[in-house]
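Suppose a colleague, Dr. K., hands you the sequence of a protein chain of 249 amino acids and asks what its three-dimensional shape might be. Before reaching for any lab equipment, you can write down a predicted structure in token form. Begin with the sequence itself:
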Amino acid sequence: MINTGTQNEKELVKALDKTVFKKLNNNLQTMIEEIFGPQKPNTKLKCHLTDNFIKPDIVVECEGKQAFISVKNNRAEMVHSEDIKSFILFLRKFGVSVETQKTLLLYQFGDGTMDGSGKKRMNYHEVYDWLHEHIDKANEELNGKFEIIMETFQRVLFQGVDITAQSAEYIYYGTVDYGIIISKRQLEHHLKTKEWGWYDNLHIGPILLKPHARYANKAVVDDYRRKQVTFYWPKMQADLVYIGKRYNF
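The predicted structure, expressed as tokens, is then:
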């Protein structure tokens, strides 16, 4: 049976809530000590699911301290989705050029317009062939400032669109029996030490930007979905494992 995201979160809560440290399996003991430091055998723990539509999925409490954790599993690579226009408004805070903003809209709709009003929608290869020089320029700008990369990660992995919502502090990739816990600080160090120029696709750091549904060469089924830009982190599991081993502090 496939361990879905929601099921996995409930199983983590069940394993961590109203128990003591010594009763956890080795994987969860490691997770707790990565977050809260060394623990006594009888340290009491609590855990609960968060409300819907915020980035953290579970809250773990240990000795009166709380940790807000975003849970990923099942080779999940999609990390976020939002309206393309709201994301462009977000990028304007960093002085992103009008040219790059236009490229993002043209790439999103793939119909020769910046508002989706075109009659014919191209597929991925057609759009890339048409826009590849503009995509190259956009990639150079979007990855030219570390602030853009880090703040994008903050938005798509830790905070979400609502800046008043509780943000996640950690990413846990795995299940009750096996996983890796990564802090925002570890991820920031990773992003500072890597280069991302070898990506051809539209990207910010290792995150790829794709339209949720372009409806190439067919009728539009859902206009809302067509306006959603989706953020993917290819090989996220492997990257998180590397980050956990490389930046161990």
